[in-house]
């Protein structure tokens, strides 16, 4: 094999799903030892493409050439036997099993001697600077540690191509740095790396080459070091879409939401208990809470929305008084609105129409009279959301599940905002949506703030929080860090908070 | 190769076509089964489906049979819409019959229809109480309602047996395990001069109407639907999960109890050990076959009643085994579930793999 | 009657006998549920096993062929469930219910002319030297062949989940089928095999009823045991050892009326007949009070249909 033979070459890959063309005529080539970025926004077809490479999804047409030989990859087992490893965005780990059981399961017969496996795991994890204990059950690991399990799982075998799907989106900034060290070490040993991301500065920092996807097609190829983030962004989203906006920071007025020493034990064995949470959100400001998933965000949201009631009513207060023991409907009546993390299944019922999904939380606003649903008003409400928030849908009778993520999210945000909330709590408001929708959602939030509403945003996307929030802090293991005006905070500082490096006394004060 | 491909949206057409398809498939399988058993399939199907309805007497009996099935199924549909798996209509029906009988027997010589009203209310309350046990355990301790309602069915059956062998046994009834016949005051009036069809059928129709109103017009019905489709979304929207659980179980239990008490005060006229030939279980099938929709359930319960009558008639005329009825019922539900796949998927022909097409 | 050691020995013996069908069905259902599939059709599969086993044994005079056919029938029924619930992705609860209703009807239909026919069933085999051990001798070493077989199957299932790689795969598939698919484990095949094992066990339990416990065929002779076994799996928190414990505990509960009568009390048999069902509810309530425990042990994807991504 000469250095010029590509490790993997894709020619004319095409994959059609009902209603969408996920991949169309994709060409891609990765050399040994190369760190190659696959760039594209949500829905551009990145995930489909790497599932094709890993044998999880079969392409309709197209050819794959592995080290000079045409091949067809039937399943992940075959991909692994070729030396292809993959780190999924939503980890493919089994929480109730241990680290080494997880690795043994995925490797199958290639796992070799089961008895020596834990030892090999330790050796490899040390060599690449990723500490792991083979006998720990996965549910006791942090998100960063789980990612290490996924990576080590690939390294235990002879690895030639490592695919990582949005690996940095779940990590703290410090963890990202450590990951990059490992990846560079791997590449220097000749391993090819396919790095999937939509974060341009990371790609610029790490990758030798980049292929950019837009709408399922290759929209450009480049050497990231030679490009500006702006030029890459244009390739990603096209010329029409504004790439990023900066918003004016505000101070806010009267305090609307007060959390005071909220303690709550989680009843879920895999959950996180909330410890001594204190926080104030003012009318007319956006407060952002950063954090790695699984650090108590879900529990905090459930306590705020009223899905779980707090042990003492007084730990959550509105200007009208304590609300900790009020149910979600009662809190809505006091001016709270809520955008949950999962669009399908919580924010909306997948198999119900948009009209019905408008009624889901809009029922307090004149859509129900004497226990009867007013069908005309309900339909009108949904149509107004669709119109005001530019939701792309054939009509209000379309099922929620048939909308794209971005459009459904716009619908949900619109539904909550149209109820004129005085407090909006939003969780991961732009998770998995395209840039156009994300911008629209951010603008809607800013506008709501400027109208004087208090807004609390919880997100794993630190960049987003820096962009829209006026004050920022982080949650770690059920505790809140101190909060600072965003203009005075640095990414590094917030990263430390996300990793739990803060004085809890000071934070609670 | 033929493969299943998900549809973008559930097919509205298949929602209605699937039960028809399932009925046809059951019919075809039935014909094959009859042929295999050595009967003329046409005669057999005629005996099963047409012969029972050839005179007004037959039609009257048909409605008599349909009444308890309809009452139970309409209640179950309310529960199933909210994703509450009440399998206990049979037990709730039996409790309605049992308690209704116990009350009716307190008025051996009464002519007053006030007694009847009391008996009916007690029957409904008994069904509600029996379903209420499951509701209490579900809302209080999160106990799975499928298993509790099934167990309550067995317990109700045992209680009924105990009652007809013991406290409610007719002292003058020789050794038969039956109660005394009810007084005129505790008997349901019939709707027609000839035949046994009683006002229970009318009550069932009223229930259909009320439930239709509840599920398609009221906000409560909407809340139940959300809870049934996505419990998390209902929780997020702040719908009262426990209260809705209680409500649907009270409705389905009450209606099943009414079905039971109508049986003993109507066509039977006394308490006997086999009040129900599995109406409560058949109602589960009817609820699904009728798409959990009141009008669909009305049609499906008429079909189910016909299968019961046909089974009896075929047993007499062709001496087929009695179990044929429940065999057909099971088959119908299976075919329905299989056909329902077409609501969410369609069959497509796939070409053999064309991976190499794009290669040069 | 005095409550002496002999009576205790007999009671333990009867407890194991009565608990055996529950043990078998519950073991099968547990394997099935561990793979993420909830099959409520146990009652139906059991009855089909009972009737198939009885008719075969009656016709051939060979009990073993009867048992074999019963298991085969159980597997066949489970495949019907598997096709609709796994391949066609139908609602597992509804499909399981359909299987039970169908099984009750079909078994009654097939067995109509065999009701009340006599057959010579499995006889107890005393293991020489051991069956005379006081108290536990008769219970462990004076049973019939199928009970011994149930001991072996129990140990097999225990070993399967404790030590074997396929056991690990079943658990993984039941916890997170999407992850399992992503790492290349055969989700569909695993689920089918687990469902088929459940069918075989239900069939075997049916054969035990009609060929050993009460050697005869009667409509609906399983009398809700399939449902009790389902509760048992929850009771056992999906742990093999606790299934054994639970099965025998329920066995004891169902023969309690014999004890009560033996002790000279006069209670209606119909009221005592409700005991196992009431006990099931009580146990379920007791367990569901601790939701944390259920969440900790229940297969995470239990009852959820799995759609392949390709």
Q: Brief overview, please?
A:
The complex is a heterotrimer of chains A (509), B (360) and C (310). With 360 residues, chain B is an all-alpha fold.
CATH fold description of chain C:
ABC transporter involved in vitamin B12 uptake, BtuC
Write down the secondary-structure element order of chain C. Answer: HHHHHHHHHHHHHHH
Q: Oligomeric state of the chains?
A: heterotrimer
Question: In this structure, how is the largest beta sheet of chain C organized?
Answer: none
CATH topology of chain B: ABC transporter involved in vitamin B12 uptake, BtuC
- What is the CATH domain class of chain C? Mainly Alpha
Number of separate helices of chain C = 15
Fraction in beta strands of chain B:
under 5%
* Alpha carbon gyration radius of chain B: 23 Å
General shape of chain C? globular
Characterize the biggest β-sheet of chain B. Answer: 2 strands, antiparallel
Query: What does the average pLDDT of chain C come to?
Result: 89
What keywords describe this structure?
heterotrimer; B: 360 residues; mainly alpha; ABC transporter involved in vitamin B12 uptake, BtuC; two-stranded antiparallel sheet; 13 helices; 2 strands; 69% helix; disordered C terminus; C: 310 residues; 15 helices; 0% strand
């Amino acid at each position: 094999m000469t250095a010029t033979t590509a490790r993997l070459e894709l020619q004319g890959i095409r994959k059609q799903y009902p209603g969408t063309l996920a991949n169309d005529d994709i060409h891609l080539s990765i050399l040994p030892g190369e760190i190659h970025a696959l760039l594209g926004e949500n829905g551009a077809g990145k995930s489909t493409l790497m599932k094709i490479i890993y044998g999880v999804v079969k392409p309709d047409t197209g050819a794959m050439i592995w080290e000079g030989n045409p091949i067809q990859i039937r399943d992940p087992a075959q991909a692994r036997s070729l030396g292809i490893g993959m780190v999924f965005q939503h980890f493919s780990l089994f929480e109730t099993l241990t680290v080494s059981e997880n690795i043994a399961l995925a490797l199958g017969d290639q796992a070799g001697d089961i008895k020596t496996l834990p030892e090999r795991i330790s050796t490899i994890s040390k060599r690449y600077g990723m500490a792991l204990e083979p006998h720990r059950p996965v549910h006791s690991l942090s998100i960063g540690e789980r990612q290490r399990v996924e990576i080590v799982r690939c390294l235990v075998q002879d690895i030639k191509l490592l695919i990582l799907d949005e690996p940095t989106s779940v990590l703290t900034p410090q963890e990202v740095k450590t990951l990059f060290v490992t990846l560079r070490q791997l590449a220097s040993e000749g391993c090819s790396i396919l790095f999937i991301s939509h974060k341009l500065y990371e790609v610029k920092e790490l990758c030798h080459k980049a292929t950019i996807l837009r709408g399922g097609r290759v929209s450009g190829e480049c050497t990231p070091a030679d490009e500006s983030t702006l030029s890459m962004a244009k390739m990603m989203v096209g010329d029409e879409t504004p790439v990023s906006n900066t918003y004016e920071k505000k101070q806010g007025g009267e305090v609307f939401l007060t959390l005071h020493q909220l303690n709550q034990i989680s009843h879920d064995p895999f959950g996180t208990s909330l410890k001594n949470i204190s926080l104030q959100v003012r009318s007319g400001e956006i407060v952002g809470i950063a954090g790695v998933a699984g650090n108590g965000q879900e529990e905090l949201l459930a306590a705020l929305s009223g899905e779980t009631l707090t042990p003492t009513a007084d730990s959550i207060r509105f200007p009208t008084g304590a609300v900790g023991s009020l149910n979600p409907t009662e809190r809505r009546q006091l001016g709270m609105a809520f955008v949950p993390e999962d669009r399908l299944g919580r924010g909306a019922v997948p198999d119900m129409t948009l009209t019905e999904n408008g009624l889901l939380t809009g029922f307090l606003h004149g859509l129900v009279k004497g226990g009867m649903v007013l069908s005309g008003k309900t339909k009108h409400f949904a149509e107004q959301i669709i119109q005001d928030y530019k939701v792309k849908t054939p009509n209000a009778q379309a099922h929620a599940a048939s909308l794209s993520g971005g459009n459904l999210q716009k619908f949900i945000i619109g539904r909550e905002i149209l109820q004129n909330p005085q407090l909006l709590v939003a969780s991961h408001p732009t998770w998995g949506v395209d840039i156009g929708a994300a911008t629209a959602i951010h603008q809607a939030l800013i506008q709501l703030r400027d109208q004087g509403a208090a807004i609390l945003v919880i997100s794993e996307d630190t960049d987003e929080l820096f962009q829209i929030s006026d004050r920022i802090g982080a949650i770690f293991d059920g505790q809140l860090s101190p909060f600072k005006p965003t203009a005075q905070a640095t990414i590094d500082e917030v990263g430390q908070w996300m990793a739990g490096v803060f004085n809890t006394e000071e934070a609670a004060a | 190769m033929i493969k299943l491909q998900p549809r973008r949206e559930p097919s509205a057409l298949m929602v209605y076509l699937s039960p028809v398809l399932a009925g046809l498939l059951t019919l075809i399988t039935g014909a094959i089964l009859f042929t295999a058993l050595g009967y003329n399939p046409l005669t057999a199907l005629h005996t099963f489906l047409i012969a029972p309805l050839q005179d007004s007497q037959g039609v009257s009996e048909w409605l008599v049979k349909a009444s308890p099935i309809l009452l139970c199924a309409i209640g179950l549909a309310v529960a199933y819409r909210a994703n509450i798996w009440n399998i206990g209509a049979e037990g709730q029906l039996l409790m309605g019959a049992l308690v209704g009988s116990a009350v009716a027997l307190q008025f051996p010589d009464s002519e007053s229809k006030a007694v009847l009203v009391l008996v009916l209310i007690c029957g409904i309350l008994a069904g509600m109480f029996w379903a209420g046990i499951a509701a209490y355990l579900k809302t209080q301790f999160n106990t799975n309602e499928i298993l509790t309602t099934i167990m309550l069915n067995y317990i109700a059956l045992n209680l009924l047996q105990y009652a007809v062998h013991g406290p409610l046994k007719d002292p003058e009834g020789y050794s038969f395990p039956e109660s005394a016949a009810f007084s005129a005051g505790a008997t349901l009036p019939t709707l027609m001069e000839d035949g046994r069809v009683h006002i229970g059928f009318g009550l069932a129709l009223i229930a259909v109407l009320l439930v239709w109103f509840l599920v398609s017009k009221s906000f409560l019905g909407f809340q139940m639907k959300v809870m049934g489709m996505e419990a998390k979304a209902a929780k997020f929207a702040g719908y009262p999960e426990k209260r809705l659980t209680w409500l649907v179980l009270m409705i389905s239990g009450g209606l099943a109890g009414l079905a039971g008490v109508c049986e003993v005060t109507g066509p039977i006229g006394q308490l006997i050990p086999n009040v129900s030939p599995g109406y409560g279980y058949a109602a589960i099938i009817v609820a699904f076959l009728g798409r959990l929709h009141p009008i669909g359930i009305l049609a499906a319960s008429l079909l189910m009643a016909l299968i019961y009558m046909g089974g009896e008639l075929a047993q007499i005329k062709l001496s087929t085994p009695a179990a044929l009825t429940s065999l057909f019922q099971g088959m119908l539900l299976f075919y329905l579930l299989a056909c329902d796949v077409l609501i969410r998927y369609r069959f497509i022909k796939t070409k053999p793999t064309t991976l190499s097409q794009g290669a040069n | 009657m005095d409550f002496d050691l002999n009576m205790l020995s007999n009671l333990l013996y009867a407890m194991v006998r009565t608990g055996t069908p529950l043990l078998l069905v519950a073991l099968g259902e547990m394997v099935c549920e561990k793979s993420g599939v909830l099959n409520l059709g146990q009652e139906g599969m059991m009855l089909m096993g009972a009737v198939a086993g009885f008719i075969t044994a009656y016709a051939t005079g060979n009990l073993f062929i009867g048992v074999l056919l019963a298991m085969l029938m159980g597997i066949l029924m489970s495949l019907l469930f598997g096709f609709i619930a796994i391949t066609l992705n139908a609602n597992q609860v509804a499909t399981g219910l359909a299987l039970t209703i169908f099984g009750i009807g079909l078994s009654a239909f097939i067995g109509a002319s065999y009701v009340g026919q006599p057959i010579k069933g499995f006889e107890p085999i005393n293991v020489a030297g051991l069956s005379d051990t006081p108290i536990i001798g008769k219970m462990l070493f004076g049973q019939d062949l199928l009970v011994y077989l149930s001991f072996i199957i129990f140990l097999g299932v225990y070993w399967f989940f404790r030590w074997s790689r396929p056991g690990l795969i079943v658990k993984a598939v039941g916890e997170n089928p999407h992850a399992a698919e992503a790492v290349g484990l055969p989700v569909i095949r695993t689920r089918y095999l687990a469902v088929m094992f459940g069918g075989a066990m239900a069939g075997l339990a049916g054969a035990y009823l009609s060929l050993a416990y009460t050697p005869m065929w009667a409509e609906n002779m399983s009398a809700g045991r399939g449902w009790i076994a389902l509760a048992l799996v929850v009771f056992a928190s999906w742990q093999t050892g606790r299934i054994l414990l639970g099965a025998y505990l329920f066995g004891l509960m169902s023969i309690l009326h014999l004890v009560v009568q033996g002790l000279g009390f006069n209670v209606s048999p119909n009221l005592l007949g409700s005991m196992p069902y009431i006990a099931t509810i009580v146990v379920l309530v007791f367990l569901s009070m601790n939701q944390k425990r259920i969440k900790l042990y229940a297969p995470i994807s239990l009852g959820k249909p799995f759609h392949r991504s390709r």
